[in-house]
Amino acid sequence: MDEKELFEQYRRTRDPALRNEIVERNLYIAAMLAKKFVGRGVEYDDLYQIASLALVKGVDRFDPGRDAKFSTFITPTITGEIKNYFRDRSRLIHLPRRVSELRLEIKKTADKLLSETGKSPTPAELAAALGVTEEEVVSAIEAGAVVSLDRPAEEDGGSYYDVLPARDDAFERLERRDAVQAALKCLNERELEIVSCRYGEELSQTETAKRLNVSQMYVSRMERKILEKLRENLRKSMAD
Amino acid sequence: MMELLTMEFPLGREIMTSVRLATGGICALAGFGLDAAEDCKVCVTEGLLLLLGRGCERAKVSFTGGEKLLVALTGEGSAPSDRSVEEEISIALLSALVDDLEIKKEENGARITFGFSAL
């Protein structure tokens, strides 16, 4: 059955099996578009999931009699959903952590490659070793340009060091640690393992997934659930 | 209208990182936010991939500033459009993200132009 016939039959019957077939035939569009938005702080698997959901919704809205081709119809729909996701959720939460994680990995790998080969590795060599794109390597290096705290920050000669607020308040740190320790008691063993990998060892979601022998999506979902649980617990303890 | 940057290079996948980084710089100059700049990088890359898919061997990219950022991508040495699904999806993606998309066949190549605004 060709695409048009499949859609016409689905519109007549609303048979879920037909919808599944249409979705499966077009999942490659979701994959193609998700790949184009990789490198912006959201894992490919998450983007693929968003794109796939948009595809499923789009199947119900497509009119084979009026709209030209499904691929042309669905591309802006999927693109819109991905853009909405970026706008609503991703940047503030993921980007800084991901970039800083990648920077640490780059540093470690660069040192390792230097000692092995005796020459400073290129971004392409680092990308191959880390399993990321060359662009991600270059961007992460670029993102981390450091500024000396002794650099003048004010016209009268004051440095950044002089104007930055003190961050190391021992009492506050102790209070925060107590609160976090108490909140962690609400987590089960599996959840504690994930917290330990992600925030103790600072592993990426993919590395955590490998360590625990689960999928990256599972780690992503669990992490969201854990953070919500901890937030709720901290909120309650503050109210008490 | 102010010409911001023009680049010419042999067209290949290995040059895309440099082009994307330069595009990011132009977006910063144009005052775009992070999301708009990332979208613009996707569009420039997509346009170049379209030219590459049509067999272009060299490309010229120019950015012009004004009310919106105008981008012109010219490819030389092209084969005709193969009307593949990939090409259709690329064009649909560009249409979803940019203003005034035009794709023209030229004597020895193709030219893609579009406008991009931060909104």
Protein model, in words:
- The complex is a heterodimer of chains A (240) and B (119).
- By secondary structure, chain A is mainly α.
- Chain A is built from 11 helices and no strands.
- Chain A has a domain of 89 residues: Four Helix Bundle (Hemerythrin (Met), subunit A).
- With 119 residues, chain B is α+β, with helices and mostly antiparallel strands.
- Helix content of chain B is 39%, strand content 34%.
- Chain B has 3 helices and 5 strands, in the order E-H-H-E-E-H-E-E.
- In chain B, strands 1-2-3-5-4 form a 5-stranded antiparallel beta sheet, with helices on one face.
- In chain B, helix 1 packs antiparallel against helix 2 and helix 2 packs antiparallel against helix 3.
- The model of chain B has no long low-confidence stretch (mean pLDDT 90).
- The interface between A and B is medium-sized, with 24 and 21 residues.
Radius of gyration of chain B: 13 Å
CATH superfamily of chain B: Histidine kinase-like ATPase, C-terminal domain
Oligomer: heterodimer
Whole-number total of structural domains of chain B: 1
Describe the SSE topology.
The complex is a heterodimer of chains A (240) and B (119).
Chain A lengths: L2 H11 L2 H21 L7 H18 L8 H48 L5 H8 L3 H10 L16 H4 L6 H15 L4 H12 L4 H8 L3 H24 L1
Chain B lengths: L1 E9 L5 H14 L4 H20 L4 E8 L3 E8 L8 H13 L1 E8 L2 E8 L3
Antiparallel strand pairs in B: 1-2, 2-3, 3-5, 4-5
Helix pairs in contact in B: 1-2, 2-3
